[in-house]
From TrEMBL:
One Pfam family this sequence matches: SBF
Biased composition, class Acidic residues, residue ranges: 329-338
Organism per entry: Oryzias latipes
Protein name as catalogued: Solute carrier family 10 member 1
Region (Disordered): 298-338
GO cellular component: membrane
Gene3D superfamilies xrefs: 1.20.1530.20
Presence of keyword Membrane: yes
Record lineage: Eukaryota, Metazoa, Chordata, Craniata, Vertebrata
Length: 338
């Protein structure tokens, strides 16, 4: 239809330029009338076609697809467990891996705090909309746990900010000590958790659950980075947003499952957060490893914010050194005069 309209427009132009008098006006009017008729018929055909297609659809099925999308064909308990994990805000792990990939820690802490604040209202709303087969599930949201997470994050971050501001020479020691404590304690807790659940862990090793646990954080990491690049954020900020969108607070998920479902109902699905966090950390670790390898092979010229900060710091150090040398020269001159 567009090709026909373009041809008619071309004919109109040719006629306007090549004919004159009553004949030209008559032909131009005819072609314009044909153009309008074809445009009207095109719209009418599309409209009628869509009406015909709409006659094959049912409101109940449309509602079912929107409210209960079926991708992995999970049973209700599996589906609601995965949904609860997906509805949780970001957690401390996103801050840790943002540090590992040389992200913007200021942005990371702000995003974690904002997403946790938003979870106070959005988690009950999402659970109410997406988990309609489980009435009252939104009441199981651990508000106390969410507020505690916010307070702990803000308090710990404030202490670190104060140390970095007033005692900057100790900030690097505190950071390295904290990371080593975190690494050792995380490995210990993972080994202990695996030992405790080793007899029942195999019960949730199913293809659909493993697929969901692998795809959810991967999609979050990818979308976060791609959208950041589209919004023209710096590489450092893009890596930070990627970590923040890919990680969920698994402690909150575990708390909701514990409160909302008795043990005989939830069964081995209570261990799904453990599988989920394992995939989160594994994928993030692989990304961090790739990033570290890339930085080793090629200097991070794209990190403009980091380079600007490093240049400014280097310039400040040069000024301070020059000033110290000037003071020293003045002192030597004063001694010589005496």
């Amino acid at each position: 239809m567009n090709l026909i309209n373009s041809s008619i427009d071309r004919v109109l132009i040719d006629n306007d330029g090549g004919l004159s008098g009553n004949s030209s006006m008559s032909n131009t009017t005819t072609f314009r009338a044909m153009n309008m008729t074809i445009n009207f018929l095109s719209l009418a055909i599309v409209f009628i076609t869509m009406i015909s297609l709409g006659c094959t659809m049912e409101i109940s099925k449309i509602k079912a697809h929107i409210l209960k999308p079926k991708v992995l064909q999970m049973d209700p308990i599996k589906a609601v467990t995965v949904l609860i994990c997906g509805c949780c805000p970001g957690g401390t792990l996103s801050n840790i891996f943002s540090l590992i990939v040389k992200g913007d820690m200021n942005l990371s802490i702000v995003m974690t705090t904002c997403s946790t604040f938003a979870a106070l209202g959005l988690m009950p709303l999402l659970l109410c909309i997406l988990c309609q087969g489980f009435p009252g599930l939104q009441k199981a949201v651990p508000y106390v746990g969410i507020v505690t997470t916010i307070l702990c994050t803000l308090l710990a971050s404030t202490i670190g900010i104060l140390i970095n501001h007033y005692k900057p020479k100790y900030s690097l020691i505190v950071k390295k000590t904290g990371l080593w404590i975190l690494l050792i304690s995380s490995i210990t807790l993972f080994i202990l958790s695996a030992y405790v659940v080793k007899d029942v862990l195999w019960m949730i090793v199913m293809a659909d659950l493993l697929t969901a646990a692998a795809l959810m954080p991967l999609i979050g990491f990818t979308l976060g980075y791609v959208l950041s690049v589209i919004c023209k954020l710096s590489p450092q900020c893009s890596r930070t947003v990627s970590m923040e969108t890919g990680f969920q607070n698994i402690q909150l998920c575990t708390a909701i499952l514990k409160v909302a479902f008795p043990a005989q109902v939830i069964g081995p699905m209570f261990l799904f957060p453990l599988i989920y966090v394992a995939f989160q950390c594994s994928e993030a670790f692989l990304m961090a490893l790739c990033f570290t390898s890339y930085r080793t092979l090629k200097p991070p010229a794209g990190d403009k914010d980091t380079n600007k900060y490093a240049d400014a710091k280097q310039e400040e150090e040069k000024k301070q050194l020059k000033q110290n040398q000037q003071w020293s020269a003045e002192e030597d001159y004063s001694r010589d005069e005496e």
